[in-house]
RidA family protein (Chrysophaeum taylorii), 185 residues
Amino acid sequence: MLCDDDDVITPTLVLLAAAALGALLLVRRHQPPVEDATTTTLVPAEPEAPPPAKTRRIDSDVAAAQRRHCVPLVRWMNAVEVRSPLYLVSAQFGADESGVLLPTAKLQVEGAFANLQRALRDGGRTIRDIAKLTVYLVHGRCSLAEYRTVEARYIPRDALPAVTIVYVVALATENILVQIEAVAA
């Protein structure tokens, strides 16, 4: 015995046994059809249910009432339930593919969304998989109208995520005017 302390060994053995049982059940579930010992009939494997939707968009009367104060400035979904592993995209900003910062606020928003699409694609996701966006705009240098014009072209109305827009004094460098973070499922 490696250790005389039953308080350490017992939980460890329980975890190992549970892991082994789980692996055995997983292997058994995914086996091809097998022949029943009493007859020559094949017993089909249990059919798998289709995977559930990754997200469910939730809206409410309260959210609709809140929107009266913001429309047409902001589009958002009140809540998004995530039913699959999260994919977190750090802040994307308006640089072209070679890393050169784009010259205007509107072009930077375009660049940020293009970079966001690439980051999502790298993880096997699309814009429609976004559950939450956090957008940072430099106050006085990137307007909500400039952001919204571009955002409306990238995010379909039937796939609106939960959104938070924050005005800031500055971002990582003086000339970055917008950053967009995303949580996708």
User: Anything to note?
Assistant: The beta strands are 34-35, 42-43, 55-58, 79-82, 87-93, 130-138, 162-168, 178-184.
